[in-house]
Design goal:
Layout (H helix, E strand, L loop, with lengths): L1 H13 L4 E4 L13 H4 L4 H10 L3 E5 L5 E6 L20 H12 L9 E3 L5 E6 L9 E6 L2 E4 L4 E3 L4 E4 L2 E4 L1 E4 L4 E2 L2 H7 L20 H16 L6 H17 L5 H14 L4 H16 L9
Parallel strand pairs: 5-12
Antiparallel strand pairs: 1-2, 2-8, 3-5, 3-7, 4-5, 4-11, 6-7, 9-10
Length: 296
């Protein structure tokens, strides 16, 4: 297994796709292996040195590899589609993607590198258009559809994952070279343009809590701005949940906090629709524990 994964790692690197180790039997980097997008490499000596330590799986850093990978997943046992996708003929991410493209009048380029995932899903590999920097997305396009570009990675063929929600190998299903991402698909995947806005001013009452509230805003925005690739959506959710407690307690205005978080999320490269969804989810989570500051 070590030899197989290493062979795939070296083959990917030879194509100019930076790779890095993933934990044995897992889809995540080994404990302590941080900043993977920067540390991913095409250097065969460094790759061999990593794989001498353990029988790792292989991760491909899609952004630096100039790849856009469309991840079409299958539902977990008992998982039902949301109402908007509970339609005849829709059973998995591939069905959703086909319908999404049909609605948009977009042709799917199937003649490209295809990798079958450990639970029967499909990775479609495309090369990114020159001079572009598409972000990764998680579910914002449709049910069971993720995309992996900048800020994301994919588990490479030759890797074996043994997790509670399913075990299996990643295998090449169609060995064609990655096709250029069709302009029609690029348009579908491109983040919506956000109109330029003036800096958001969050009105805070001038009282003994003013400094505390301003510090809370600054702290959450700083954590969000410093989020590493792969952790950005989680950081945005955490910031929204923390500030949501203060919003629910009446200490901060909801609309201005939403706008501030929206600018922060888009500013670190998250897809706009994903940002909106994550902020709403985080605020709802925070509202369960409203923080009311004493007025006396």
């Amino acid at each position: 297994m070590t030899a197989t994964a290493l062979r795939y790692a070296l083959a990917a690197a030879a194509r100019g796709w930076p790779v890095f180790p993933l934990a044995t039997g897992d889809k995540a980097p080994p404990r302590g292996f941080t900043d993977w997008e920067r540390r991913a490499t095409c250097d065969p000596d460094r790759i061999r040195a990593w794989w001498r330590r353990a029988p790792y799986n292989v991760g491909i850093a899609t952004g630096p590899a100039r790849l856009v990978v469309i991840d079409l997943d299958r539902p977990k046992p008992g998982q039902r589609p949301p109402a908007e996708w509970d339609l005849p003929g829709i059973s998995d991410g591939a069905d959703v993607f086909a319908m999404l493209c049909e609605r948009a009048g977009v042709a799917i380029e199937w003649e490209t590198l295809q990798v079958r995932t450990r639970r029967g899903g499909l990775h479609l590999y495309y090369t990114a258009p020159p001079g572009t920097r598409l972000p990764s997305t998680s579910g914002s396009l449709g049910w069971l559809i993720d995309t992996r570009a900048w800020g994301g990675y994919v588990v490479a063929p030759g890797s074996t994952v043994t997790l509670a929600d399913g075990a299996g190998r990643y295998t090449v299903q169609h060995a064609a070279p990655p096709a250029p991402l069709p302009p029609s698909l690029f348009k579908l995947l491109s983040p919506a343009r956000i109109p330029a806005r003036r800096p958001v001013h969050v009105p805070i009452a001038d009282n003994r809590h003013s400094a505390y509230l301003r510090a809370a805003l600054d702290r959450e925005l700083a954590h969000l701005a410093a989020a590493q690739p792969g952790q950005r959506n989680r950081s945005l959710f955490g910031a929204a949940a923390a500030l949501g407690e203060l919003v629910a307690g009446g200490a901060l205005p909801e609309q201005e906090v939403k706008e501030l978080l929206e600018q922060g999320g888009v500013g670190i490269g998250l897809h706009h629709s994903e940002v909106i969804r994550t902020i709403e989810s985080g605020l709802r989570h925070g509202a369960r524990r409203p923080r009311r500051l004493a007025t006396a």
